[in-house]
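Section 5: illustrative case.
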């Protein structure tokens, strides 16, 4: 009963925490923050003032590297743009180091961003996984068919949010799309007209050829 009461009290406390207080609480509980602070032993392959890269102790393949920001962030949207850009540059160099150092055939760069995406750690990280032909590391992405109307709605929903985040005026995007659709309709009509003219020409030619052939036959009997 005491444990249940403690858990309820903790949940209530978490609900009332500010984002900053919640991050500090998560940081204290986070194993990867302890690794980044060198309070836990790990095999460090790279380190700078913003990030640290260590070998995974439960690797998907030999040489599996985890690149961590030293600051605690749970998911990618929380990371400032300069830091995520820095992580991207370091990922590129680590991928090359793994390729050449381990003489593998490729690397898989993987981010599990959120629980639904398979994220198990509370600390954001980039996985750099060495790959060899036939290594049987599973990451199969299914391919599904989707109807045009559903695709159009998805496109609009995503593009609206992209416009909002990038500060693009929706009116301009809508205007461009309407111009494109109008242009597509005009081109379609032109194509249909050309096809109709060609078909008419073929019919006239065929008719002439058939007429000439009948006249020739008639002359044989006169």
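Designed sequence:
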């Amino acid at each position: 009963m005491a444990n249940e009461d403690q858990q309820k009290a903790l949940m209530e406390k978490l609900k009332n925490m500010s984002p900053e207080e919640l991050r500090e609480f998560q940081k204290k509980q986070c194993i990867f923050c302890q690794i980044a602070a060198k309070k836990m032993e790990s095999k460090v392959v790279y380190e700078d003032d913003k990030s640290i890269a260590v070998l995974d102790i439960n690797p998907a393949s030999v040489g599996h590297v985890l690149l961590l920001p030293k600051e605690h962030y749970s998911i990618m949207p929380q990371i400032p743009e300069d830091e995520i850009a820095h992580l991207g540059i370091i990922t590129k160099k680590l991928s090359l180091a793994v390729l050449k150092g381990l003489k593998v055939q490729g690397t898989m760069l993987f981010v599990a961003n959120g629980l639904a995406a398979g994220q198990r750690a509370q600390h954001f990280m980039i996985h750099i996984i060495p790959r060899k032909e036939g290594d049987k590391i599973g990451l199969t992405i299914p391919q599904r068919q989707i109807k045009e109307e559903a695709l159009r709605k998805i496109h609009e929903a995503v593009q609206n949010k992209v416009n909002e985040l990038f500060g693009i005026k929706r009116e301009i995007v809508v205007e461009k799309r309407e111009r494109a659709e109008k242009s597509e309709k005009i081109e379609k009509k032109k194509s249909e007209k050309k096809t109709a003219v060609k078909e008419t020409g073929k019919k006239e030619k065929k008719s002439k050829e058939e007429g000439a052939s009948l006249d020739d036959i008639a002359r044989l009997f006169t």
